Amino acid sequence: MRDVAPKKLLGFWDLMSISLGQIIGTGVVVLTGISISMTGYGAPLAFVLALGIVAIPSLCIASLGSSIPNTGGNYTYVRDLLGRKTSFIYLMLLIAGQIILASFAIGFAQYADALLPNINTMIVAAVVMVLCYLANLLGIKTAARIQALMVLILLVSLVIYIISGLGHVENFSAYTQPRNIFPSGFAGFFAAAFLLRLSLIGSEFISEFGGEMKTQAR
């Protein structure tokens, strides 16, 4: 049977919206609060360190994705470069790691409960997971457009939140004092940064759409 090449459906802005949606998602909201409990005023700097941690593997994946575009992303690279047995182990670890998506849905439901008290958070979380699943069934192009709309709403909300929140910061000097940045020592600071990397690492998943990416004219 002849292999059918996947259609090149995703352009630059489609991929950008998917990448931003993976990064600026529920993970930022949920994990930021946890990191604050771990390192206090050091949370902004922990984000910077997390960005550095994420940049190292992301640059490697970006190089692979542009040099060897292939649907399947990291799994395909591990399979082709390290063998099928290793790729099976990687796939099992990847599946186990996706359990965190459930925590993001629960986090969304908990924030919804703050706006609409007494709602069933478990049902809301389940509905969110199902809607995300159904959006992907509509096709990659449709899912990308839905993602673009959600990213736009999210960016506008974040800008409003940041502008309104800055007025409530009474003492910016607290963010430069070591005792406030490292209340639990460097170990707590690094643990917070390592946790925050989970909210930034989502952009690597666009490498999984290599087979559907359009080639940009130079």
Order of helices and strands: HHHHHHHHHH
Number of helices: 10
Percentage of residues in strands: under 5%
Radius of gyration: 20 Å
- Oligomeric nature of the chains: single chain
Distance between the termini: 35 Å
Principal-axis shape: globular
Number of strands: 0
Poorly predicted runs: none
Main beta sheet: none
Helical content class: 55-70%
Overall mean pLDDT stands at: 79
State the secondary-structure class. Answer: mainly alpha
Number of domains: 1
SSE layout:
Layout: H1 12-23, H2 26-39, H3 43-67, H4 73-82, H5 84-97, H6 100-115, H7 121-137, H8 140-166, H9 178-181, H10 185-196
What does this structure look like?
The chain is an all-alpha fold and 218 residues long. The protein has one domain (13-164, 176-211). It contains ten helices and no strands.
Précis, in short:
This protein has ten helices and no strands.
What distinguishing features does this structure have?
218 residues, mainly alpha, 10 helices
